[in-house]
Design brief:
Largest sheet: none
Distance between the termini: 32 Å
CATH class: Mainly Alpha
CATH architecture: Orthogonal Bundle
Low-confidence stretches: 185-190
Mean pLDDT: 82
Helix content: over 70%
CATH superfamily: MetI-like
Number of strands: 0
Radius of gyration: 20 Å
Number of helices: 9
Length: about 190
Amino acid sequence: ALVLGTRGAAAVSQTRFFGRETISLLVILPIALPGIITGIALRSAFSMADIPFSFWTIVLGHATFCIVVVYNNAVARFRRISGSLIEASMDLGADGFQTFRYVILPNIGTALLAGGMLAFALSFDEVIVTTFTAGQQSTLPIWMLEELIRPRQRPVTNVVAMVVVMATFLPILGAYYLTRDGDQIAGAGK
């Protein structure tokens, strides 16, 4: 999700082409749809393509809605990068990779880290899409959902749920501070 979201954000924000807004809408669509619609659509697509449900179908399912989080963070940061910085880098003899490494990446690094952390937090406790794409695989959210009907296991389930809440809360808090500091740094340069 991090790689695809960043590449999509770079393409949409740095270049002009026909259908750019349509591609942007298609990338954002999975997060706008209810999880059950996304899950059913993914299950239907995997079934029609005769792809057996496995760990990789879960990864693809989670990537479809996690790309959006990375994409939104990266697009916002890409739009704040001045084109003159990239042009100056190229004028000074840097190739595309060097420009990316020394100019673009330092400017978007915190947004990518925050997007990755938010994508992890979103993916970590996703039940609906996982249920539709898992097949026979057992994941933590599915296990927790199954354990709720067993009264003797409720204390264990509560402890695991608290660990999940903390594992989800910490990346969100970290992403907040990363993007807040990035905004202050970008604002100080003006």
